[in-house]
Specification:
By secondary structure, the protein is mainly beta. It is 3% helix and 34% strand. It is globular.
Length: 163
């Protein structure tokens, strides 16, 4: 893991920036960053998935699993729910293109950009299984609780995603 004094959280990176002349000057895959306000971020690769879902800042992402079948990848994420394992990985900070590397927020409070599928203040939330890039209320024992809804009107959640 790399120690950062500051991080350009909304910056996206191509593969060539990670391995080219800037190698060692950019975050490493899986690196964590904790900000001064105790929000936690993780450096990952974004996949648009079969639905070619664009990366949008503030959208929820799940761990990439082509066709919904987990391959054990924990450093690749997608907003295309049909290509995730259903576990909330975090919320995009920037707007990455397919295959780019970026930061996702995995801990602390954040405002979700898309409308919530369901939820009232205080509800446990999970990645929606029907609508790309958003959250719904935990409804089954098998749903992974990755967030708590702080305010339904502002779509503010407290994230507690896997690190």
């Amino acid at each position: 893991m790399t120690a950062f004094v500051g991080a350009s959280l909304d910056q996206t990176y191509t593969q060539s920036r990670l391995t080219g002349t800037e190698s060692g000057k950019v975050p490493g895959i899986g690196d964590l960053y904790v900000s001064h306000d105790n929000k936690t971020y993780r450096f990952v690769r974004y996949r648009a998935g079969a639905g070619a879902i664009a990366g949008v800042a503030g959208a929820a992402v799940g761990f990439y699993a082509p066709g919904g079948t987990s391959t054990g990848l924990t450093n690749e994420v997608s907003s295309d729910v049909s290509d995730t394992n259903g576990i909330l990985a975090g919320v995009l900070v920037g707007a990455p293109a397919h295959g780019e590397y970026c930061w996702i927020q995995v801990g602390g409070s954040v405002v979700i950009t898309p409308a919530l599928v369901s939820g009232a203040t205080g509800n446990a939330m999970t990645l929606s299984s029907t609508t790309d890039g958003t959250l719904k209320v935990v409804a089954a024992a098998t749903d992974y609780q990755g967030a708590a809804l702080i305010s339904a009107s502002t779509k503010t959640v407290m994230l507690c995603c896997p690190r």
